[in-house]
Structure formats: C-alpha cells, structure tokens
C-alpha cells in the first residue's frame, strides 16, 4: 500500500495538547490496522516564531506542500502580542491557506444529542442540529490589497483593508456548497451584504447564475449576512448548507460552534481544488484557537481536533467507515456521560484532555473490531 503522508503542526497553547490525542489514534491505526500513515512534524505560530523568527519556516511550508494532508492544532497567545504584524502567529495559518490554495473551508456544526443541554440555546432549538458552513478561505478582506495603515500626516492614521472577490472565486466556492448539499438535505443558503457591498452584489449574482447553470435541482435561498446571524440563533435548524465569504464565514462559524455546546467541539476541513489525479491539498483544524486561558492545564476538549482527523480520514483518504466510526466513538463517549470542563453537566464525569482522548480511542477500537 502506498504511504499516507501527514504533516502534524500542533502550534501553540492547547494545540499540542489536543494533537497528542490524535497522535494516539494514528499510532493505533498504524499498529493494529495497518493504516500506513507516515507522519512528520513541524512548527507553526508562536512556537515557529520562537524557533525561526517566522510564523512558519520555509522548510515546514515545503513539507506542508508535499504532504497528503496537514493536521493543524491552533496558534496564537498573549506571549506573541507584541511581535511584528507580518510574523504574528496567525500569519502562519493564513500563509498555509493561501500557498496551499485551500479555498474551501467546511465547518460542520452538529449538535450531539447528549450535548443539547450544553448549548446556550434551548435544547429543542438545537437537538438534531446538523448544518454545514462553507466558508470561502483564500479571498475577501483577509487577503485583498491594499491592506495597510497609512499616516495622513495630520496626526491621523488610516487603516485600510480591502474586500475583493472575482467571479471564479465565487463560482468555485458556490460549486462546493451545491455539491455538498446534494449529499445532504439539498438546500443552500448564500449569505452576503449586497445592500452595502459591491462584492456582495457580485456574490449574489454569481451564486444565482452558478445555481441556474449547473445546480437548479438544489434549493437556493439568499440572506443578508446580519439577518443570517440572527436566524442562526433564532432557529438554526432551518439551515442545511450555508455558503459565505471569508470574514462572514469566520464569524458565523463561531456562532454556530456555540450552538453545539462549545467551541471545543467544532472541526473543520480546508480543501483545495482537485488536481488531474483527483487529489486535493487539504488542512484539517479545529475551529477554536489556542485558548490561552486554559493552556497547559490538561483540561482542553480534544474533540474538535479528533473530529478534524475524522474529516481528514473522510476527505483526504476516503476512509469513510473509519471516519464514521471515529465520529460514532465521540458520540458514544458523550452519551456515556464523560465530559471535559467546557461541556460539563450535572451527573456527568469530568475528565481532562488525555482521559477524553483515551475514552474516544477505546470506543473507536471497539467499533473498528
Ligand atoms: P479561543 O478559541 O482560543 O478561545 C475562546 C474561548 O473558548 C476560551 O475561553 C477558551 O478557553 C475556550 N475554548 C476554545 N477551545 C477550547 C477547547 N478545545 N476546550 C475547552 N475550551 C475551549 O479564541 P480566543 O481566545 O479569541 O483566541 C486566542 C488566540 O487564538 C488568539 O491569539 C487568536 O488569534 C487565536 N486563534 C487561533 C485560531 C486557529 O489557530 N485556528 C482560531 C481562533 C483564534
Ligand atoms: C479561524 C481563525 C483564523 C481566521 C485566525 C486565527 C487567522 O479565527 O480559523 O476561524 O480568522 O480565519
Ligand atoms: Mn475564527
């Protein structure tokens, strides 16, 4: 069997703590299931800055470009608050997304039945919730030029960010959303702000045309992004697939994450376009950050990281049964009442990061037997 190559970039804060739990699962799959994962490790974020003075080294960028998939923990933290903007920890993640051309960010928000009461919304609003946010990841205001602070010379400065979208960028992300909708409830809601933004007008037009041309079997709805945020907390189950730009997708996916009980639950996949052999570059990461407030304590929830690895099994290696089993293992462990602090509820047993990882691995082993 050809090797499956994985680059692990644990990063900062709780990133390495969560990654340690995925490493255990990989070791088990290699030792007992002959999965043939070949892993390499690199530094990203503050840890890379401390070692190389850059948020990711050229060597690690090369490794990322060569790997079948990248597993990413989290970056950032107060230790690096004062480092120059160009080499801040988050720049490492943005460079990976840009250079690997990972334009499609899939952020599922699924409410596990056992966690309905951990949501900030009433349980009946989130029970059975299963939505997928498809966030454009390599364009928009994150990367548009000019992006600068200029001195106006009169004691004033001007901060400039530029929102830019070209037709092809909107077409390809809309295509991803429509394709995925066909495997789900066949519904897409596109969110922009066409009432104030020219890029929003174009977004709306291109999504509409793409739908008409190739996906008219899918139900399409448009919503202004602010109203979309409101609808997400009013009646989240109305949505199936949401497609939106880079910045709105960032904000709406944090909102969606809390609906599921904790930011510590949400995985994500960032995918590039398929090459001639049908293979695509990919990076998998939790939606949460480095959680400086709980880092180093061994109490972070590793589920978002483990579920990100499940997405990796599904999207990069077509190991669908394993992905299903790993997700089922997470659900079983939650059903059994085991909880990290962020999702703790009355009558449940509170555990740390490693114990949660061990419990999920044990359930996964049983399901895989
Ligand atoms: P955060 O996601 O790190 O934390 C927000 C809150 O959620 C904190 O109270 C934290 O303790 C909690 N939380 C997050 N993940 C958790 C988990 N797995 N288990 C339990 N609790 C969890 O967001 P923030 O505090 O706004 O940002 C901290 C740093 O992380 C910043 O430097 C930010 O830029 C960075 N960040 C990085 C990424 C990434 O690497 N992909 C994403 C978001 C933020
Ligand atoms: C995310 C994060 C990143 C983003 C940061 C860390 C650059 O918030 O992945 O959601 O804004 O995209
Ligand atoms: Mn974010």
TrEMBL record:
Q: Which PROSITE patterns match?
A: IDH_IMDH (PS00470)
Q: Which InterPro entries match?
A: IsoCit/isopropylmalate_DH_CS (IPR019818), IsoPropMal-DH-like_dom (IPR024084), Isopropylmalate_DH (IPR004429)
NAD listed as a keyword: yes
Task: Please give the catalytic activity noted in the UniProt record.
Answer: (2R,3S)-3-isopropylmalate + NAD(+) = 4-methyl-2-oxopentanoate + CO2 + NADH
Which residues hold substrate? 97, 107, 135, 226
Note describing how the cofactor binds: Binds 1 Mg(2+) or Mn(2+) ion per subunit.
Q: Which Gene3D superfamilies match?
A: Isopropylmalate Dehydrogenase
Pathway as given in its UniProt record: Amino-acid biosynthesis; L-leucine biosynthesis; L-leucine from 3-methyl-2-oxobutanoate: step 3/4
Give the subcellular location. Answer: Cytoplasm
Q: What is its main location?
A: cytoplasm
The positions annotated as site (Important for catalysis) read: 142, 193
At which positions is Mg(2+) bound? 226, 250, 254
Q: What does this protein do?
A: Catalyzes the oxidation of 3-carboxy-2-hydroxy-4-methylpentanoate (3-isopropylmalate) to 3-carboxy-4-methyl-2-oxopentanoate. The product decarboxylates to 4-methyl-2 oxopentanoate.
What PANTHER family is this protein classified in? Answer: 3-ISOPROPYLMALATE DEHYDROGENASE (PTHR42979:SF1)
Record-given protein name = 3-isopropylmalate dehydrogenase
């Amino acid at each position: 069997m050809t090797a499956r190559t994985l680059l692990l970039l644990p990063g900062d804060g709780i990133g390495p703590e969560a990654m340690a739990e995925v490493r255990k699962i990989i070791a088990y799959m290699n030792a007992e299931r002959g999965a043939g994962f070949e892993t390499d490790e690199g530094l990203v974020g503050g840890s890379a800055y401390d070692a190389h003075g850059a948020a990711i080294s050229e060597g690690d960028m090369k490794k990322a470009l060569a790997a079948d998939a990248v597993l990413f923990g989290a970056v950032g933290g107060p230790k690096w608050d004062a480092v120059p903007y160009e080499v801040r920890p988050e720049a490492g993640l943005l460079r990976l997304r840009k250079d690997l051309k990972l334009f499609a960010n899939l952020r599922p928000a699924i409410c596990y039945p056992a966690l309905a009461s951990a949501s900030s919304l009433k349980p009946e609003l989130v029970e059975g919730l299963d939505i997928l946010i498809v966030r454009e990841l390599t364009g928009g205001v994150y990367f548009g030029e000019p992006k600068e602070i200029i001195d106006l010379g009169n004691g004033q400065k001007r901060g400039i960010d530029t929102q830019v979208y070209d037709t092809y960028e909107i077409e390809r992300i809309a295509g991803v959303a429509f394709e995925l909708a066909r495997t789900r409830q066949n519904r897409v809601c596109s969110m922009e702000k066409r009432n104030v933004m020219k890029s929003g007008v174009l977004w709306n037009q291109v999504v509409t045309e793409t739908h008409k041309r190739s996906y008219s079997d899918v139900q399409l709805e448009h919503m202004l992004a602010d109203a979309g945020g409101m609808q997400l907390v009013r009646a989240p189950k109305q949505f199936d697939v949401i497609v939106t730009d880079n910045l709105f997708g960032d904000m709406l996916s944090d909102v969606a994450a809390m609906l599921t009980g904790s930011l510590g639950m949400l995985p994500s996949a960032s995918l590039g376009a398929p090459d001639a052999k049908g293979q695509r570059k990919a990076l998998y990461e939790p939606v949460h950050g480095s959680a400086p407030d709980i880092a180093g304590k061994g109490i972070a929830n590793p589920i978002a990281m483990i579920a990100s690895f499940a997405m990796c099994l599904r999207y990069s290696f077509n190991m669908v049964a394993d992905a299903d089993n790993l997700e089922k293992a997470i659900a079983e462990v939650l059903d059994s009442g085991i909880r990290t602090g962020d999702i703790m509820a009355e009558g449940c047993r509170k555990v740390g990061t490693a114990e949660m990882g061990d419990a999920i691995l044990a359930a996964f082993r049983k399901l895989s037997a």
